[in-house]
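Case study 2.
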Amino acid sequence: MNWLQGGPFLELSFIINEPTKIERVISKLKNLDVKIEVHNPPEYLQQYYEGYPYDEDDPHSVMIHQITLNITVHTTRLRRALLFVEKISSKLLSFSICFYGDAFDAPEWNQLGVRDDELDEFISLLISLYMELDFSVGGLAIEEDIKGLFDVSEGWPNEKYHLANLNFKDSLQNFLAIIINRSLKDNFPDEHFILKDNSYLLYRTELR
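Prediction:
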């Protein structure tokens, strides 16, 4: 059985500046109030650094660096999830934690849904991850990750995936919550965001 299957998926994602060792990010997950277990052995991460060519028949093909990890997240109810790590440009890494996101449980797949009264747990987890990792921007959405905020049509990796190309105006409604590092405050319209703890900007939509 697949570690995570079905759908839709609730995606908690964030962008971190390169250079960053993904082992460092994963090790910091242990510092959260919510326990996160990674089930892949450390040597498995080497596949990320080795990468693979987008086109195996092209010696000049761009290299793809990405990896998928099986994790368990100890929210109030224990959940299986997948952690996707992708290098989207020379300066940016994308991390996305995907949960089974239907409102109802799927016992046939041994997967828990996300009830309305549980969504706040995931927003709190997003905030906790920000406080530990100090990432640039992060979000929570159904079937959408933070890469959807980029006003870029090209696939990644691509140097157009730059923080200056984030587009909140057209994509904000797709997210349940978004966090922006305060250092980026002057770069983006903030009428929908609230400054929290003099540290980060938080946007929250009406929960379903």
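The mean pLDDT is 90.
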